[in-house]
């Protein structure tokens, strides 16, 4: 997918009809918070000649541009569908689709109560390392990190091992469900160091609404076969809901290398 990437058949003329392949980003297309490999981009380029492709990630478009895009190509031109923040910010063939927002849903007063509780809880946590950005406010959700999103790659790796052993995120999420369950929120652990908080139903299945809406438009395509590739597919992981959704065919991957192998096998590349 470099500047000289070949043209792609129009969506309605892709050889494998009514089919789209959707991908999680971290630990599926890329190592966590790192850039995509040339081999993955080349494989996606070949795949796009056969079927529609898209990504669906919890992070915002800026982060996905950093991980998937290049200096010469916006990420919105590299996929047919781009679903940032689970599809609350979305693009089809580079054109923005209708968006939604977390703060409109929850309101300022309830958000302040939520943010204050999180910051107090993290302040009292005794963990080996704390850095900065414990709450990241996004358009469609908040992302909460006990160590802080400013942690280095090595600190993230160390924290992930510590978290798996001591269940820091799991325990915090359980307490938040008890405290804020009445607000209609979902708490979803993903990546190495954080978890997402968003209105129930605004998980990765939210992006499927865009595909359904697009099918209703003049000349729209009804994607009857939707493949989803993701790594956090166990219950509680942020890929779980779309992985088990009856509208999708779920593929659980163990990192980008495994994802590459599954793409090639599934689509005969």
If you had to describe this structure to a student in words, what would you say it looks like?
With 269 residues, the protein is an alpha/beta fold. Helix content is 35%, strand content 18%. It contains nine helices and eleven strands. The protein has helices at residues 38-48, 61-68, 102-106, 108-123, 153-166, 168-180, 206-216, 240-244, 256-267, and strands spanning 19-23, 52-56, 81-84, 89-92, 95-96, 135-137, 142-144, 185-190, 194-199, 225-230, 248-252. The chain has a seven-stranded mixed sheet. A four-stranded antiparallel sheet has the order 6-7-9-8. Strand 4 (89-92) and strand 5 form a beta hairpin. Helix 1 packs parallel to helix 9 (256-267). The longest helix has 16 residues, at 108-123.
Tally of DSSP β-strands: 11
Alpha carbon gap, first and last residue:
16 Å
Along the chain, the helix and strand elements come as EHEHEEEHHEEHHEEHEHEH
| Major sheet | 7 strands, mixed
Contiguous low-pLDDT stretches (5 residues minimum) are none
Structural class: alpha/beta
Shape descriptor reads globular
Write the layout of secondary structure elements.
Blueprint: E1 19-23, H1 38-48, E2 52-56, H2 61-68, E3 81-84, E4 89-92, E5 95-96, H3 102-106, H4 108-123, E6 135-137, E7 142-144, H5 153-166, H6 168-180, E8 185-190, E9 194-199, H7 206-216, E10 225-230, H8 240-244, E11 248-252, H9 256-267
Parallel strand pairs: 1-2, 1-10, 2-3, 10-11
Antiparallel strand pairs: 3-4, 4-5, 6-7, 7-9, 8-9
In short:
This protein has 269 residues and is of the alpha/beta class. It is 35% helix and 18% strand.
């Amino acid at each position: 997918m470099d500047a000289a990437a070949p043209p792609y058949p129009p969506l309605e003329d892709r050889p494998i009809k009514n089919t789209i392949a959707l991908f999680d980003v971290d630990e599926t297309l890329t190592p966590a918070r790192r850039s995509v490999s040339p081999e993955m981009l080349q494989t996606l380029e070949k795949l796009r000649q056969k079927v529609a492709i898209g990504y669906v990630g919890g992070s915002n478009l800026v982060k996905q541009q950093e991980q998937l895009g290049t200096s010469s190509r916006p990420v919105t031109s590299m996929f047919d569908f781009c679903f940032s923040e689970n599809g609350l910010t979305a693009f089809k063939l580079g054109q923005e689709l209708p968006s939604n927002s977390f703060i409109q849903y929850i309101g300022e007063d309830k958000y302040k109560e939520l943010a204050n509780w999180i910051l107090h809880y993290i302040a009292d946590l005794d963990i080996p390392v704390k850095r900065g950005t414990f709450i990241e406010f996004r358009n469609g959700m908040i992302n909460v990190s006990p160590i802080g999103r400013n942690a280095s790659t090595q600190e993230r790796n160390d924290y992930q091992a510590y978290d798996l052993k001591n269940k820091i995120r799991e325990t915090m999420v359980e307490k938040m469900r008890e405290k804020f369950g009445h607000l209609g929120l979902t708490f979803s652990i993903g990546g190495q160091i954080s978890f997402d908080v968003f209105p129930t139903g605004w998980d990765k299945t939210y992006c499927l609404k865009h595909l359904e809406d697009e099918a209703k438009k003049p000349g729209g395509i009804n994607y009857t076969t939707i493949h989803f590739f993701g790594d956090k597919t166990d219950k509680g992981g942020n890929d779980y809901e779309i992985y088990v959704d009856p509208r999708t065919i779920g593929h659980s991957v163990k990192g980008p290398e495994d994802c590459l192998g599954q793409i090639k096998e599934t689509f005969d590349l």
